[in-house]
């Protein structure tokens, strides 16, 4: 009887360890999107439609200044957890427009855009 109880206890402990190491149930796998790594905001070359290979990949929160970007470009927000991105006419994240939600993108004229911000949720 003791051997059976020990065996059952060992099995329960092993099962609990597997569940604990598997992560939360709502965690989604990391997915690239049009060459944009999961967790990043990407800018694509002028007039590349559809978006295939980004020229700029931003992964840290805060402002990222742009230079020599003219014409229409895809900007994809492949962040997670509710993080947004904004296109700003000023450098260092000044004068930003409406946030771009995670999992969405915009095809925008970057001529007047001087920075992009990655915003914490």
Automatic annotation (TrEMBL):
Which controlled-vocabulary keywords does the entry list? Signal
The residues the entry assigns to the signal sequence are 1-27
User: What's the protein called, per UniProt?
Assistant: Peptidase inhibitor family I36
Organism listed in the record: Streptomyces flavotricini
The root-end lineage is: Bacteria, Bacillati, Actinomycetota, Actinomycetes, Kitasatosporales
């Amino acid at each position: 009887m003791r051997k059976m109880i020990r065996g059952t206890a060992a099995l329960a402990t092993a099962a609990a360890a597997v569940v604990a190491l598997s992560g939360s149930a709502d965690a989604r796998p990391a997915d690239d999107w049009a060459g944009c790594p999961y967790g990043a905001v990407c800018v694509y070359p002028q007039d590349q439609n559809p978006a295939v290979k980004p020229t700029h990949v931003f992964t840290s929160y805060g402002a990222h200044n742009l230079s020599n970007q003219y014409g229409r470009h895809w900007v994809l927000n492949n962040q997670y957890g509710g993080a947004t991105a904004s296109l700003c006419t000023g450098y260092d994240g000044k004068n930003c427009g409406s946030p771009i939600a995670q999992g969405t993108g915009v095809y925008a004229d970057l001529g007047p855009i001087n920075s992009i911000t990655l915003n914490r949720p």
